[in-house]
Design a protein that fits this description.
By secondary structure, this protein is an alpha/beta fold. The protein has 18 helices and 27 strands. It folds into three domains: 237 residues, Aminohydrolase, N-terminal nucleophile (Ntn) domain (Glutamine Phosphoribosylpyrophosphate, subunit 1, domain 1), CATH 3.60.20.10; 184 residues, 3-Layer(aba) Sandwich (Rossmann fold); 141 residues, Rossmann fold, CATH 3.40.50. The strands form five sheets. The chain has an eight-stranded antiparallel beta sheet, with helices on one face. Strands 5-6-7-8-12-13-14 form a seven-stranded antiparallel beta sheet. It has a five-stranded parallel beta sheet with strand order 19-18-20-21-22, with helices on both faces. Helix 15 packs across helix 18. The chain starts with a strand and ends in an 18-residue tail after the last helix. It binds 2-deoxy-2-amino glucitol-6-phosphate (AGP).
């Protein structure tokens, strides 16, 4: 996934492009570049590495001009270097392009263009675009772009400027997001909202295969057949402060400490406190259908997949509806056995994960009702689903998800409780009890967060180990998976999440004193089983850190270190156990000097397959 920015207006473009790129750096940071058009000339400046490298280059002399494009790259084709960095130009710098996505048929196109005399200098798929537009150009840039994108297969979000048709930016998208910002006498283009919040919160979401011609006075948008479209300008409620670190060392730490607010956001307006009743007017799912649901499929990737696994336990426990969970990337290639009475739930923080979008489209074809749990308004998944339940986490900038994970869990608790209420699968007393415990969660999370110093101390004891086993059972098994993922993706330390009951079937062979185990062992219905597993692990002379329930006296005699969580209902422990694991991963990575917000090889949303 890459970040694209564009500006056209009365101001100097470079400072605005740089500011926008920094807000999008979480989308990719292998290389960065800008292109500025002035007096019939386009200057391109680009550098391998993070945006600060480009900034250092521009300090020596930034191009002047008030039309420009910027790009921060997550490499797909062609390693990160100055040549492969975007923007890319054609045979001369008359047509310049920035691109996010993958052009799957770039090789035959490249060969055809080379046979027509075009010279290529990079290894990227992107470079075919400016040459293709050049070869299609007659006297209208929009038309040349339109004809060119009709020849490409794959995903793209592109921005194009040209000295042949100055005074405009042409943009289009298919499978990768692109947003147009509407200012006063100036216009913006970006892959994501945070890049333009300093200048406007009025945005237009470009839809699939639409083409925008942007001038400083406005934008004309046509569909793939050239028909002019009237597009709604949406006011975004997020503000700039939400996209700043606000004094925290990293976005990830700030976002962990926003988790109580996320829980409150998800409870607000969905629970009628007087009647102890759930109201979910935001989903247009007809009540009768809820009663008829025969099976639920939950599809997602990465950490969102782990929340889906928690969702399985919650839905089956509260509603009695069988749930099948699958990776989007696996599901989309399986035989789709979905019926009209099956509900598909797609979970995606960004709403732009390519595999989850593809899974959505496969389920749509099979006739299933599609409900999306996502964080980003206007995202592809939010626009293509039949109904959306927003996870209300606010902009999440850290590449490793934290508060959105909590938002997804909260949405799943509320959704399944609502379904249970509609289907009468649990009585009102039980609903009241769960609501009561849900409302207590913000305070319980505050208690966990206040114990951060304990986690810092634990991270100082454990940061030198190179392998970890995370164990959980039942509803906490997915949290073991998530705890392991958090550690490996930001500290590059190997960690494996495993069902506690399965550990004897292999992984126990790994254990010795160099291989600590983190065990999630709240006082729930499988407590004694997990204690037995921990004793098996301890017999292999390995260090065990347990996440246990406050007041559990037995555990401290069995394990080496304990982090106590407040007591709650069995089904709510995932919320309380994932937060210490997020902090544990954060502080180990921080101690190891890793770039916590921008871990190597990763991007915030995987918009390519
Ligand atoms: C989580 O820390 C990772 N960044 C990654 O696994 C992420 O959860 C996954 O790519 C799914 O993203 P999505 O929720 O935006 O679809």
């Amino acid at each position: 996934m890459c970040g694209i920015v564009g500006y056209i207006g009365p101001k100097e473009a470079v400072p605005i492009l740089l500011d926008g790129l920094k807000k999008l750096e979480y989308r990719g940071y292998d290389s960065a570049g800008i292109a500025v058009l002035k007096d019939n000339k386009i200057q391109i400046k680009k550098r391998k590495g993070k945006i600060v490298k480009l900034e250092n280059l521009l300090e020596k002399g930034a191009p002047k001009g008030n039309i420009g494009l910027g790009h921060t790259r997550w490499a797909t084709h062609g390693k990160p270097n100055n040549l492969n960095a975007h923007p890319h130009n054609g045979c001369n710098s008359e047509i310049v392009v920035v691109h996010n996505g993958i052009i799957e048929n770039y090789m035959p196109l490249r060969e055809k263009l080379i046979s027509e005399g075009h010279n290529f200098i990079s290894e990227t798929d992107t470079e075919v675009l400016p040459h293709l537009i050049e070869s299609n150009y007659q006297n209208d840039l929009t038309l040349a772009v339109k004809e060119s994108i009709e020849e490409i297969e794959g995903s793209y979000a592109i921005g194009v400027i040209s000295t042949r048709d100055p005074g405009k930016i042409v943009a289009s998208r298919c499978g990768s997001p692109l947003i147009i910002g509407v200012g006063e006498g100036e216009m913006f283009l970006a892959s994501d909202i945070p890049a333009m919040l300093n200048y406007t919160n009025r945005v237009i979401f470009l839809e699939e295969r639409e083409i925008a011609t942007i001038t400083k006075d406005g934008v004309k948008i046509v569909d793939s057949k050239g028909k002019i479209l009237e597009k709604e300008i949406i006011n975004i409620e997020w503000d700039v402060e939400m996209t700043e670190k606000s004094g925290y060392k990293h976005f990830m730490l700030k976002e962990i400490f926003q988790e109580t607010m996320v829980i409150r956001n998800n409870l607000e307006g969905r629970i009628n406190l007087t009647a102890n009743f759930l109201e979910l007017s935001e989903i247009s799912f007809p009540l009768k259908n809820i009663k008829e649901i025969e099976k639920i499929f939950i599809l997602a990737c990465g950490s969102s997949y782990y929340t889906a696994l928690v969702g399985k336990y919650i839905f089956e426990e509260l509603t009695g509806i069988p749930v099948e969970v699958d990776y989007s990337s696996e599901f989309r290639y399986r035989k789709i056995l979905l019926g009209k009475k099956d509900l598909t739930i797609l979970i995606s923080q960004s709403g732009e994960t390519a595999d989850t979008i593809a899974a959505l489209r496969a389920c749509r074809e099979a006739g299933s009702y599609i409900l999306a749990l996502t964080n980003v308004r206007g995202s592809t998944i939010s626009r293509e689903a039949d109904s959306v339940m927003y996870i209300k986490a606010g902009p999440e900038i850290g590449v490793a998800t934290t508060k959105a994970f909590i938002g997804q869990l909260m949405s799943l608790y509320i959704l399944s409780l609502y379904f249970a209420q509609v289907r009468n699968t649990i009585n009102h007393t039980e609903i009241k009890k769960i609501i009561f415990e849900l409302i207590k969660l913000p305070q319980l999370v505050e208690i966990v967060l206040l114990k951060e110093p304990e986690i810092i101390k634990l991270s100082e004891e454990f940061f030198n180990y190179h392998n970890f086993l995370y164990l959980g059972r039942g509803i906490n098994y997915p949290i073991a998976l998530e705890g392991a993922l958090k550690l490996k993706e930001i500290s590059y330390v190997h960690a494996e999440g495993y069902p506690a009951g399965e550990m004897k079937h292999g992984p126990i062979a790994l254990l010795d004193k160099t291989f600590p185990t983190v065990a999630i062992v709240p006082k729930d219905k499988v407590y004694t089983k997990v204690i037995n597993n921990i004793k098996e692990v301890k017999a292999r002379d390995t260090l065990v850190l347990a996440l246990a329930t406050e007041g559990d006296k037995e555990i401290s005699n069995i394990v080496d270190r304990v982090f106590y969580m407040p007591q709650t209902l069995d089904i709510l422990y995932p919320i309380l156990s994932v937060i210490p694991l997020q902090l544990f991963a954060y502080h180990i990575a921080n101690k190891l000097g890793c770039d916590v917000d921008k871990p190597r090889n990763l991007a915030k949303s995987v918009t390519v397959e």
